[in-house]
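Figure 6 in text form: structure in, sequence out.
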């Protein structure tokens, strides 16, 4: 997964550095204050990109009967609803995590299992904090078959975030805490659970991907 992190950082950083180099060359030749300002802003954006694509080490708990957070952020919704995708209209519990631009944007697998469903839904780019984002926004979904039943994890684009990355697909065996993707620049991650679960978080709680326990499945 180190290659995944470096690859995405370079995709963002290299074009920025090339443009910034051209701006500096233009400033040296023309002595334009505008080009100097843009070049300085380019350096600041490059520094922000390096910080944004950070991938801090996480101490993933060994808890096969628990669901851990798939993302850093803030719990903004815990509610019952019907899912017309993976769960074919059945009622599920949805837990939504909002990621602001300052959060780590790496996504992690919440529990061991096998990916048995995937769907990329092209949609809108409403503010990810909005309730409508869970249904209307562009999103990538993976359904995971676990020993506790099926769960669905959604990577949801936001008003700024318009680039969803997932490196796992149908048939892949996945492990709790494993990195499987990221969403660039502000977004939302939802978990949908059909089985009964003892939820350990409340609306407003801050969570860490790969560490915070979202809930425990009943034995």
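Output sequence:
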């Amino acid at each position: 997964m180190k290659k995944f992190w470096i690859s995405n950082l370079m995709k963002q950083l290299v074009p920025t550095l090339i443009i910034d180099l051209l701006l500096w060359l233009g400033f040296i030749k023309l002595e334009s204050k505008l080009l100097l300002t843009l070049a300085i802003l380019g350096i600041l954006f490059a520094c922000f990109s390096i910080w944004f694509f950070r991938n801090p080490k996480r101490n993933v708990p060994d808890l096969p009967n628990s669901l851990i957070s798939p993302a850093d952020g803030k719990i903004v919704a815990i509610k019952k609803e019907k899912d017309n995708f993976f769960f074919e209209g059945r009622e599920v519990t949805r837990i939504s995590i909002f990621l602001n631009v300052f959060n780590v944007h790496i996504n992690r697998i919440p529990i061991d299992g096998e990916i048995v469903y995937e769907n990329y839904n092209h949609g809108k780019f409403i503010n990810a904090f909005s309730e409508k984002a869970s249904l209307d926004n562009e999103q990538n979904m993976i359904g995971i078959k676990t020993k506790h039943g099926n769960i669905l994890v959604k990577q949801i684009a936001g008003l700024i975030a318009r680039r969803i990355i997932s490196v796992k697909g149908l048939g892949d065996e996945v492990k709790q805490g494993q990195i499987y993707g990221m969403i660039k620049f502000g977004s939302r991650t939802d978990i949908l659970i059909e089985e009964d679960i003892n939820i350990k978080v409340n609306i407003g709680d801050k969570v860490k991907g790969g560490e915070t326990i979202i809930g425990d499945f009943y034995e």
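Caption detail: Residues 2-52 form one domain.
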